[in-house]
Design brief:
Helices cover 55% and strands 8% of the residues. It has one domain. With 80 residues, it is mainly alpha-helical. The protein has four helices and two strands, in the order ββαααα.
Length: 80
């Protein structure tokens, strides 16, 4: 399934993991973007915790590397 996310970027959802394992182009993309995908996962988890806390400021990303990586990802700099 394809879609457009909130930032206007095209997204693709795969119906089955077998597509990833048997589609060389997808395997290449995942390999090239693995650092970004890990960062995206960490940020999604952090955002979930922040929302679940009632948006408590104690759950915001701390200054330093975590915040800098998130800001860079928002600017599109974290992708290969």
């Amino acid at each position: 399934m394809t879609d457009i996310d909130q930032a206007g970027e095209a997204t693709v959802a795969l119906a089955h993991e077998a597509l990833i394992n048997n589609w060389p182009r997808v395997q290449d993309w995942v390999q090239e973007n693995k650092d970004f995908l890990r960062l995206k996962s960490r940020l999604a988890h952090a955002a979930h915790l922040w929302r679940e806390s009632g948006k408590d400021s104690d759950f915001l990303l701390p200054e330093g590397k975590p915040l800098a990586e998130a800001e860079d990802a928002l600017r599109g700099g974290a992708r290969s």
